[in-house]
Batch of 3 targets.
Target 1
Amino acid sequence: MALKKVKNILLSDKILAHYDPTLPIVLSVDSSACGVGAVLAHRYPDGSERLICCASRTLNAAEKSYSQLDKEALAIFFGVTKNHQYLYGRSFVIRTDHKPLSYIFGEKLGIPQTAASRLQRYAARLAAYDYTVEWVNSAQNGPADCLSRLPLPQNGNDNSVDAYSYLCFLESAFPVNHKDIAEAVKIDPVLRNVYKYIIFGRPSNTDVVQEKPYFNRKDNLYVDSGCIMYNYRIVIPPKFRQYILNELHEGHLGVVKMKNTARSYVYWPGLDGDVEQICKSCAACQQQRDAPPHAPLTPWEFPARPWQRLHADFGEYNGKHYLIIVDAYSKWIEVFQLNSTAAKFVISKFREIFARFGLPLQVVTDGGPPFGSHEIKEYFNRNGIIHNITSPYRPKGNGAAENAVKTVKRCIKKACFEGVEIDAAINKMLFNYRNCEQATTGVAPAVALIGRRLRGRLDILRPDVASRVRSKQLVQIERAGGTQREVQRGDNVFIRNYGRDKTKWVEGQVSDQVGPSSFEVNVPHGTVRRHIDQIIKPARASKRYSLTCTSKDTNGDMTSDFDILPEQPVTAQNSEIISGPERKDHSSDVQSVVKDQVEDDKYELASTSPVPVTVERKCHGLRPLRHRLN
């Protein structure tokens, strides 16, 4: 009676409900060691649930070997496909008590690429449905758990083909048969226990160290044809591991490719380490392995002053050799064409450039000939130069010289393309390069080495201060006028006296010229400096005192020029007396005789009047008596 009463309650409208497309649907699923169960229910606004239908079935022999993860996934797949007519085309919630599936089939992460092919097939089939996965603990999943533990006798033998398809594929790819692996699993103490844990259930933890890697992956382990599978990879017993490693090492593909291949087929704890070890123990792989990762860059120390460290190297183009030298401080480049790279020719070029800029402290080259020769070594030692040789076949060690070689060779190639003379092209390139601001130092090489820019044709465009000043000076000279006079060393002259005595002119002798118009003159009281305007030359009796002089007639008109001779009688205007005692004679003309020339246009006269007097007269105040008109 009680059993019938319970059946009637389960069949009543208190438990069951008709399908309503407007209400949310919840699909609860669960699996056990013997079957799977699924419960489809409506969720009402008050939170209560009423069943729509229930389903269960018994697992077949192959499905009982599945891992717990695959069994729980099978329960989801069974529940969805069983209720396809209710779920297809609408959203619903899948409720499971297996938490990993909430991530694998969840909407955020998606199915992992490393998931087993069975899970991938389930995910592909379920992709046609709109669902979300909800995890609950086992106590809240009672109806589905009950159905999975008391399943109907119906089983899923129709799915047995899929259970063997993947393993059969692997069997054709492996050098050993899966039956051999299954036999080895039975005799290996560790894998035998793992096999039992998968089939009959596992403890919560283990103290065996060898079993811990398998416990960490317990949700992804299952049994297939007597072999332990980890996702889609076969767990290899220790007996066949070396055989598998040798098979993976065929072709010497290297560590990375061996690991990729192994991760597609096999698994055992420490697989990656074993792959690395077999590659390290292979003589062929070690001989042909790649270079190690490059070390961090160590730049050369920047020199403290110019021409302290030089970098040198050879450049070759069309059979011609060029010695290229660059200063590490200023980046100044020198290029020399060589007929031969013998040591004596290289030393000759080094001697030439050292004569121009001095000896450096250090020279950096590679070890190729002739830099590694005894002659080069002796030459540098004699001159106190440190010779650093970089590592062979490593251009980065002498990067400054390599960059300079690249720059010069690019210039040569452009010159050949344009049909320009190579030497002229190199010199033009060097001229412009030395004047151009360097990218690393921010200073032009010419400025860094010699302290100035090289003057070029573009400098003509700039205003020249010196030329402008010179033009202004020429204008000043032209406006100032003046008479050009010359004084030679040893000449007897009269110089202007600025002493306390009242003598205006003092006799002296020119000792030296100390400027364009300045002279040192020896006088009785020492040596003084005078400008040419402060110096006059005394007249000589044998010569005329002046070249020309202009006279006036009785009417005041200018007459022709005449020469004034010593002891020549002349008439002088009385009003132009410059020195001598004051006279009371105010006549306009005074008869005099020329005694000496004191300046270019002044003469010393001796009066012939009753009271003799010595006077100075200017040229235009004199008239020769023979030219006097009566």
Note: Residues 399-418 form the longest helix (20 residues).
Target 2
Amino acid sequence: MSGVEIAGILVPAAVSLATPVVAFLFSKVKQGSISLDDTHQVLNFGLEGLVALRKVINNEISGNIIQKVPLRVYNNWKERVSNIENQVASLNKEYEEVRGKKWNISRKSDLLSEMKKAVNEVVSILGECTQEILIDKPRELAIEEKGVPPIRGYLPLENAFQKILTLLQNDRVKCVALHGQKGVGKTTIMRHLNNHFYDSVGKFFDMVIFIKVPTDDKQTDPQTEDLHVLCKIADRIKVDREGDESEVSGRIQQVLENTRYLLILDGIRCTPDGIWEKLDISKGNSKVVITTDNPLAFKSKYVDRNVPLQPLHPDEAWKMFRNVIGDNLIQDIPNARRICNRFCSCLPLLIYPIASSFKCRQASTDWQSVLDECTSWAQLGVDGLEELYENLKICYKSLPNQSDRKCFHYASLYPANSKIYTRYLVECCIVLGLVGDVDANTDYKALRSRVIDVTLRRLVNFAFLEEGGKMRYVTMNDFYRQFAIYMSSKDSTSECRSYVDNEEEQAFRSASQHHTWVSRIGSRWNSPPTNQNFASLQILLLQKNLKLDQIPPEYFDGMGNLLVLNLYGTKLRRLPSLSGLTKLKAFYLNDCSDLEIESSEIQPLKNLEVFDIRGARINSMPRLERLWCLRISYDEGGDYSGISELHNLEELMVEIEKQFIQQWFNGGENDMTNATSSLEKLRIYLPYSKQFGVASS
């Protein structure tokens, strides 16, 4: 920062947020010098402004209608504010001890010098705070659906799609309802509709908002469903979802005002009346398409036109079954058409996965053994969900080994349609023992690659997962997620007894007593429930809980069997006692930017194998003899010497942010190399900086 030096304090040349502090400084300077008392006043005046500015920005992040993303540079700026705040508190304490005492002139002189340095730091921090430390979360006008099954050539699907397109071009039609039984292809048509307007966004609609209502929502209370849908819309258009229906809908209206949007509500159980009225959709040129199997929904007073969808004709169902498998393989399947008729019920939701599973089988004897185990439902009931699951068992039992099924269950712990990064998914499956036993000779990189290339690829081929980014991540749609939960609930001996995923604390209390896997990803607790028996718990996923800022000190004491703990992206400042987690193998604290960790807090985790603390701060690395994967952020002055004691370490990922790039190349890289030179199996990864796109070596 350029400027001039006044009384030993650097004054910035440019006008900045530091201007009031500089003006106050000038008022205290006399004949080119400044007294200890005046320096003390200037320092605390500047600190008050700095703390007030931090509060304003924090309020802007949490209270803005448009969700704000704090850049990493802001998190670092905030850390500097906290550091100078602690330093000034110490200087103020020393000032109170020496003020008014005429002895110890040397001590006063040293204190004056330290205070001037602190004023320099306050002025510097203020000068570096710009409006660019925050950015609006970008709103995508449309989001393309990947891997959508084709509908061309299947008349009921194609005709319904074309009819909806025609109705949306009618100025007198505001709301269209596509209705039919479960599995008939409504979601597939909506995915095609979304993609149709994705390719022409701006021509017909300014924005396409595709909302998938969860299959497991057994609530038929309109108010409950309305709030759930409103929160999903808020997430989609990047506005704050906190508050009641009125508050959330008000923010949505404000952002979508004067926007011509298409709202697709797929799978609603209640009438769309509440959403319609809360968002005041009657005004403007926006339109709504709903899908439902509930007559109450498609008979709503706001639905202008209904489009019924029937199951495929048996000939078309056989055509779809044959097209999925391929003409070259279909001849090798004995009684293929009879299998299609018996298990698929002319429903695309069953045809595609069942045909895909048969396509992946190696021999006809494999198919026959599965068929002998499975029974089909001749007729689907009104709700039909359980019948669909029962017919789909043929796919589940076609998976050749338990590892495939267990990985399928583990993936279902994540929210529907969310990105599940395969690297982290597989390493958790490894430490849980879901993909076989490991020993001292295990090559974890090779094992991870094999699980991705074989197990996860098979789940994709069976249609249980969808591939993304060349297998960098996978997703699971809501139907298969609920199917996984259904299958685990039917097996009382399964180790995959999972989990609860709702906001009610009492439901969590009950479920946590009986389940071994619990997922609360993205919940809105500021602290977890207490006074429960967690003795059987093996997995606890609490990541992306932006309100979780504290955990009771003894919370983990009763979790002696916990193997995986994920606190990624929470607001924790301190860790509770971890001494009870004697079996913990995977621990995720990445992006806990407010968290400061003491090495002694982690030391009790003797069985830890995977440790991710990118974005958090740790004073030194504890000695963890079984650790094979470590992810950290490089910090100038960090103590990395302890890494040399991690003799089983195979993977070290070092994330380097922009402000430390120069320090890394000026010596940090050598320090890290020296600290890891004795580790024979180690591979070091230097990823791109997430915020700034700085390439690593």
Note: The two ends are 30 Å apart (CA to CA).
Target 3
Amino acid sequence: MKTATFIPKHHFRSFVPSRKPQKHRILVPLSFIVIIFTILQIPQANCTYAGPDTPSKVLIWPAEFSHWINLKILAENLVKKGMEVTVLRSSAYQDFMEETDDFNFVNFNVSRFHPGDHLQSMDHILHLLKLGNEKSSFMQTIRGLAHFWLEQLDMRQSQCNALMTNQKILNKLAEAKYDVVLADATVACGEIIAAKLGVPLVYAVRILPAEAQFQYSQTPIPISYVPMINTEFTDRMNFLQRTMNLLSYLYQTIGVELYGKIAMDPLVQKYLGPNAGYRQLMSQASLWLIRTDFAFEYPRPLMPNVKFIGGFHCKPAKPLSEELENFVNDDNYDGFIVFSMGSMVRNMHKSKANTIAAAFANLKQKVVWRYLGETPDTLGPNTKIMSWLPQNDLLGHPKCKLFVTHGGTNGIYEAIYHGVPMLGLPLLVDQFDNMVRIKGKGAGKTLDITNLNRTELQSTIVELINNKSYKENAIKLSELHKDKVMTPLESATYWIEYVIRHKGAYHLRPAAHELWWFQYHLLDVIVFLIGSLVGAIWVVKLFIRYLLRKKSDKTDEQTDNSVKDKVEEMNGNGNIASSTKVVNGHLHANGYKQKNSSLQHRKKNGIRVSDPISNGNGHLSNGFHTKLSCEYCHRRKNIQSTE
């Protein structure tokens, strides 16, 4: 309860004009002084996290090429926050992971694979599927993809085995006492390392088969409006597409589960014990950092330990080099186009490169092309080929008109950030689905590089540049992407710090992790409710049958009594023998049952029954006509109807 502060009466003189003017004096109420003094004594709130005296330690398990480019940017920001970052680097990754002074590198040798093997494997499958001279057959595609994925999985398992069998490195990691393991989920082993060291695990990933990043975090996946990877569906699916989406989800899930059971569970159990499992380890991750956001992705439900950080590598453009600036800033041309197929595509078949170069040569724009292959014969003077280009700075240049891309996540988000329309030439994995989203947002179009021709490529580029709606939609995407409380990089860094501060974020994991699959989908409840409903219907049915049977018995008894009275009346008149009995409403004479009016060999009006029945010894006499039988039948029916 607040108490009023007593203010002496003379202090009110400063509020009320005095009749006598003061001589150059300003009276300050004592209450004002007290208030100001109190405010100065209140400590100011500090929203920034003050870390411990010793810097936090982060251990990184990376993936290859563009995945490492992403993770490296995040790691550099962690270093700026005062953290100590250590990167595990296998000998197979040394061709694209150069050592820097910013991080500590722990190198280990993988005997079966060497630097460049991963890139060579990727080159082979890309030329087979998209970048070669001829289109591969269906069987060639299946065999090529199977060989590629088996080779990739073998490389990843070999890396994990090489590290986990190196006891010297494991001891060194254990002594370092890391606070968190930051791992790319596309390369297995980060979860094993985290479990071995007993530290929290944070995943950074774009997408996994069967939406495994959402399955393992127990995030709901409504198949009716969440398209699976490689389906190229939007969130507005018709009946056939929803059917295909469900089938795709099922076979992808089966494949992921088989991979976990057959390939990874033995590896996990080898180093962590017989009770450990690959799916169990992945589901224990404290946090999932997903490289997408809702400016680009379709709306969907998320769990509290799943955070979207798409575009965290994007940043404002820096000035270009003098040579490059002079090339793109040419008044004789209408701006310029950036063409890059990502960090892993170095070249393509010469015929395909000639087709692309010929289309570029006829444009009114300059073209900056990242390409490491043989120079095309049709290369025009408006096209500049570079082995490496400052992609983000070029896309942020005010004269950039279009981005021709393979549809990789890094390039797409840089184009979104700077509001540049896109022409997609997707090659593999999620790139097709990425361009479906860009096309659906009205910020670009897609072409198939397999059957690409000069005229189609040139006309599509002209349309994307001249139709202002593509640029307007790209700018709208950029505005949505940037309109956040924190930048994606700040958000990713904050949540990693959050996990470190609280030694994990297990309180954000839902209780769904503790349920069996049939409990999660309420199948046990559904079976119980169906069983209860069927049981209730069966009981009601039995009760109704009992009531009907009881009523029927009562009716039969009343009918028997009525017929018996009639028989006695007839017997008194001598029409029926005394031995005739009535049972359940039927006449029984000398062992013969006469049912209703249907006597044996019933004849029409007035004809006697064929069986002779004696009247003297208790039988129905021959004089008992059908007419009487019919009269009896009608009487009985009348009695039943009145009842």
Note: The first helix runs from residue 30 to 41.
